[in-house]
Amino acid sequence: MSIRPVLETRPATPTMEGAGVHLHRAFGFADPSELDPFLLFDDFRNERPEDYERGFPWHPHRGIETITYVLSGTVAHGDSLGNAGTLGAGDVQWMTAGSGIMHQEMPKGNEAGQMHGFQLWANLPSSLKMTAPRYQDVKAGDIPTVVDDDGTAVRVVVGEFWGRRGPVDGIAADPQYLDISVPPGVKKTFKIDTYRRSFAYVFEGAGAFADASAPTGILLEKEVAGREVNIRDMSGNRTLIRFGTGDEVTVQAGEEGLRFLLVSGAPIQEPVAWHGPIVMNTRDELLTAMSELRNGTFIKPAH
Predict the structure, then answer these.
(1) Fewer CB within 10 A of the terminal residue: the chain, N end or C end?
(2) Residue 210, in any domain of the structure
(3) Phi (first) and psi of residue 184, to 5 degrees
(4) What is the CATH number of the domain that holds 187?
């Protein structure tokens, strides 16, 4: 067994997308090999409707899969193929954009005006870039939650964990997507296959992730030192932890407990040509997609 080293910790940075949605981006539009097969991760937590209600009007996608996980509020969605629906608290949508789709997402807060969720982009290999688009919409009640004897709770959104399998399947990135809550003071180890790239995203509480290179010990400040990397989130900050190669992640929860996403997937290791929500392998493929957007042939007929 080997602890995955902590390669980097960094806060998600404020940005704006869509028609003026204020959100925080943990990674994206930088080095696509860094967390291959994942390209982008956004946290859209907000309590001011004026900062999110204008949403994400019609926009194109090609060559990727988008994973939307809602914690509070709702997200109404529709597309150019006639699909429409609403994601509520705890629901997940995994959209395979494939050959191309026009899509819109319009968030709405809960009764208190709160909106919270995440969107992750996963790359598609060249063999599946032009596959037919499809959706997997999953209701909260269909996502299994496994609770260990110490109170640690894991929602298995995608993949298999502790003997349970998430309801989303057939995904090219072979992902594991877990929503983990660790009770106060509990130390817990989670297994991850060595071939996967992985990251954690802390969004509630505080704790420490074990590193692989020096003596153990829990730190009291947010820093890298010894074998522990302490991630404090006392004021609702958002922190990304990027791991190196190994087969386990160990975390020690602080006094108020810790909640984080643990995501991993098999790297695709192909060239990336990227422009917004269109991700291809070559510049020529990207130029073709942009030309098709202009001349109205972007959406491919169903076979």
Answers:
(1) C
(2) yes
(3) -55, 130
(4) 2.60.120.10
